[in-house]
Each structure stands twice: as structure tokens, then as C-alpha cells.
Amino acid sequence: MPLIHSIAASMAEHVDKVREINRRYATSRIQMSLPVRVALLSLRLYLFVLVGLLVFKFISILTQ
Amino acid sequence: MNFITRLYYRYRRAWKAIMLYLAISGPGLVVMIADNDAGGITTYAATGAKYGYNLIWFLIILVPVAYYVQEMTVRLGAVTKRGHAEAIFDGFGAFWGWFSLIDLMILDWLTLVTEFIGMTAAMHIFGVPDWLTTLAVCLLMGIIVIHGRYWTWEKIALAFCFLNLIYIPAAFMVHPSVGQIVNDGLVPNFPGGFNGEMFFFLMANIGTTIAPWMLFFQQSSVVDKGMTEKDIPWGRVDTFIGALVTVIVAVFIIILTGTVLNGVEINDAAQASDALWQKDKYVGAMMAIGLFDAGLLGAICISLASSWAFGEIFGWAHSLNTKIKEAPWFYASYFFTLVTAGLVVLIPGAPLVLITLFVQVVAVTLLPAALVFLILLLNDKPTMGEYCNTLVQNIVGGLIVVTIIALSTCYGLSALFPTLFQ
């Protein structure tokens, strides 16, 4: 039980840390226009679709 | 001043320059040569066996590409004195920061798995069981980071980098035809034409020469070493020499397997070592030793890249110059990623070869996203000042991003429509 408590306390500490990081970096220093932000997000999503295709290929080779 | 005196002073200046370079060298050399990791050796061995010398020209093109990309991290680290992860959080905010950090974490862990795959496969040739290799490697890596400072770690890593050159004498020992290498390897060509398999190999070769973890590693390493703006020229020399050496080693691996194993179905470097062992025990042994060294070097660097990145963001002490008590989370994350990656290799029936090749391809697919942030950070004039990217650097960087996206798209399409490029 003490082990579970210390793990829970450690996790809570990390969650607080994540919140603090999100507050610290809430605004970006480099100002990006809306089209640039949309382009970046589209690029990321597109790349993740490609990675999804790779995973699909990986699974299809495994199950052949 | 007479001739002897002039000669003496020229010698003194050259010697000082060499000593200064040796003092600064490290991040560029280590990151580039560590890039010839187990997955890289597998990719090059398979490329040589499949296409002979025909893709050597493609690897030579990757020298300036790798240099351009990594040089940017030297400037960014030396000017901002921050790691790449922290630079992204600061520049682009928490959303993009977490996106990049989680990308890095997953990719690094997968790549670490491939390092263990390579090391265990290499030691298997000498009859060492997988569990023993995994245990010994974890212990060795633990000792290296715990008992040294950054400079000690760097010198040990450089010693392993030197061992990475073992493929060069091995290639000479199989007596390749220089004429055939020049005819087949230096003229751009795509044997078998543009098809899904060709895209896969091109992407795997790019992915093994420039990987996202290298951006984070070199920048953090520059910061941990304490490099400043005045060290940037030497950092550039270090990076260029690293890029050159890494491609030279890659070319010699292709020459080795292209000479002895051309046309043989080779799926991984351990299989190549085994096949080479049947033809020449010394060459096979050198290939296996090189594979183990590559895996170890890659593992040393990649595990650090993740720990540095997390340390920067979470505000932990995150330097190799700190002891375990001073930086417990830094070392904890290091050992956690190391041990969990090692355990994957011990899972019975895991498709290890497939994992190795696919991780290279996934790495290159996610590379453009990392590169775009890097280029944007290097264009931040208020922060970078005179070390901002020039127009030429932006154009080259943009071309690299577009090319990789195009190749990834072609591969994705060939995965969905296998007959599209036939």
C-alpha cells in the first residue's frame, strides 16, 4: 500500500508538472499566421495518415 | 623570416587547429556515425544484396543533405543554449511541443528496439544467447553514463565510432571490381524501375541517414558540451566530417554485400554476416562485430536523446555531468527506455527483421515535420541574429522536406495500390 501511495503521489506530481509546462508555454514566441498553422497541422495529420498506411502494410505482411 | 622558421610556424598553426578541432569535435561525428546504427547496417546490407552497387550514387547525394540538416542544429544549440525539445516548446507553444516530444519518444523507443535486435543477432553468430547480450549491454551502458562526465562519455562514444570503420577493410578483403563500382554505382539509375520496393529502399536509406532523433541529440549534445557561437565553425567541420564518414562506411557496406551477396535474398545484417561467414570467416566476423558496434553506438545515443529531451522540458537536471542523486529522473528515464526496449527482443516469435526495416521507413516519414520546425526556428531573426538561415539554406531545407514528402507519398500509394508503379 505505501508503494501504491508513493506511485500515486509521484503521478500527481507529474500531472502538476505537465500543467505547469502547459501554462509556461501557453503562447508561442514565434508568431505564426493562421495559414501557416493550418499548413503545419495538415502536414502532421497527413504524415500520420502515411504512418497509418505503413502500419497497415506491416500488419498485412505479418498476416500473409 | 627564413624558410625553416616559416615552415615551423605553419606547422604550429596547423597543429593548434587540429588540437582545437579535436577539442570541439564530438557531437557531429558521434551523431553521424551513430546514425550507422543496427537498422542502418541492415538497410545498407539489404540494399547491396538487392541492387548491387547501383544505389551508391544515391547515398553520395545524402552527404550534403545530412550536413545541411545537422548543421542547423549546431547553430540552434550554440546560439540558444537550449535543446531542440525546449526550443520547440518555447517557439511554438505547448501543443506542438508535446506533439514533437511524443513523436520523438515513440520513434526513439522503436529505434532502440532495432539496436537491440542488431546487437543480439550479431552476438548470436558467436554463440552468445540473446538474454546475455541484452543484460551485458544494459550493464555496459549503465556503467558508461553513471561513471563519467559528458567528455568521458563522448570519448568512449568516439572510440566506438572508430570501430564502425571495420567495414572498410572488410570490403577490401572481398576484392570488389572498382570498374564495376564506378560504372554501376556512380551513374544515377533505378534498377528494376520505380516500384514500391524501390521507394521502400530509397526511404529506408534516407531514414537511416537522417533521423528525427539526430536533430534532438546533436542540439542537446552541443549544449551539454558547452559550445558557443564562436565554436560554430568547428562544429560545422565536425558535422561535415561526420556526414562524410557515415556515408563512406555505408558505401563500403553496400560494396561488401553487393560483391559477395548480390542477388541473394538478405533480410537483415545478421543474415548477411552469416552468409559472409560461410564464404570468409574473417569478413563474416568483421560484419558481425561492426553490427554489434553499430547497435551499441546507436543505443548509447538514442537513449540519451530521449532523456535529454524530457529533462529539458520537465526541468529535471539532465546532464551527464550530474550524478544519479542530482538527476534521478534523467537517469531513470534513460534506464527505463533501455530495459524495456531490450525486453522486446526477448519476446519469442517477435517479427524482428520486419520491425527493423519498418522503423527506418516510419522515421523518414515523420522527418519532414521535425525539419519544418527546425527551419522555422532557424528563421527566427530576433533569437538567431547573424546565425539565421540564409535564403540558400531555406531553399535547400525546403527541397529536402518536399522530396521526402513526395517519396513517402509514393510509398504510401504503392502500399495501397501495389501495381500503380509497375
Greatest interface and its participating residue counts: A-B, 26 and 32 residues
- The ordered H/E elements of chain A are HH
Overall tally of structural domains of chain A: 1
Order of helices and strands of chain B: HHHHHHHHHHHHHHHHHH
- What's the gyration radius of chain B in Å? 21 Å
Mean pLDDT of chain A: 81
* Structural class by SSE content of chain B: mainly alpha
CATH architecture of chain B: Up-down Bundle
Query: Any idea what the shape of chain B is?
Result: globular
Spatial gap, N to C terminus of chain A: 47 Å
CATH superfamily of chain B: Amino acid/polyamine transporter I
Can you summarize this structure?
Chain A is mostly helical and 64 residues long.
How would you characterize the overall build of this protein?
The complex is a heterodimer of chains A (about 60) and B (about 425). With about 60 residues, chain A is mainly α. Chain A has helices at about 1-25, 35-60. Chain A has one domain. Chain A contains 2 helices and no strands. Chain B is mainly alpha-helical and about 425 residues long. The chains are: A mainly alpha (about 60), B mainly alpha (about 425). The interface between A and B is medium-sized, with 26 and 32 residues.
Q: Which SSEs are present, and which pair or pack?
A:
The complex is a heterodimer of chains A (64) and B (422).
Chain A lengths: L1 H23 L9 H29 L2
Chain B lengths: L2 H22 L2 H8 L3 H14 L4 H25 L3 H42 L4 H17 L3 H14 L3 H7 L4 H8 L10 H14 L2 H14 L6 H29 L8 H11 L1 H34 L13 H18 L6 H27 L2 H4 L6 H26 L6
What attributes characterize this protein structure?
heterodimer, A: 64 residues, mainly alpha, B: 422 residues, Amino acid/polyamine transporter I, globular
